Amino acid sequence: MRRSCGGRGGTIKSDVYSFGLVLMELLTKKKPASSVADKSGEPINIIPYFISSVKDKSLSGVINFEAASEDENKQVEMLAKIAVKCLDQSSRKSPTMSEVA
């Protein structure tokens, strides 16, 4: 968990991280504490798996695209990229809420 998330009250950066978690949960239909099987079949937390899937452009492993049109797929990919930016553990790299809006 990010340092800025601990303790009482939140920070703008923790709000951005939380927004990324919500986006990821909506896209994957999995809670942030969930595990999935990686390519070798080993269980891995959904957050790093989601991030690597987005970066590797292999979202079909975590998101069901069966009933989606090409335009919907592009929108989902865009939202997934925003989620990854929000989940970035480096405080200097994570965007502000106005940047992701």
UniProtKB/TrEMBL annotation:
Matches recorded under InterPro entries: Kinase-like_dom_sf, Ser-Thr/Tyr_kinase_cat_dom, WAK-like
Q: Which domain of life is it from?
A: Eukaryota
- Locate the Serine-threonine/tyrosine-protein kinase catalytic domain: which residues? 11-100
Classification via Gene3D superfamilies: Transferase(Phosphotransferase) domain 1 (1.10.510.10)
A GO BP entry: cell surface receptor signaling pathway
Record-level Gene Ontology MF annotations:
ATP binding; protein kinase activity
| Record Pfam families | PK_Tyr_Ser-Thr
The entry's keywords: ATP-binding, Nucleotide-binding
Question: Keyword Nucleotide-binding: yes or no?
Answer: yes
Q: What is this protein called?
A: Serine-threonine/tyrosine-protein kinase catalytic domain-containing protein
Q: Which species does the entry assign this protein to?
A: Eucalyptus grandis (Flooded gum)
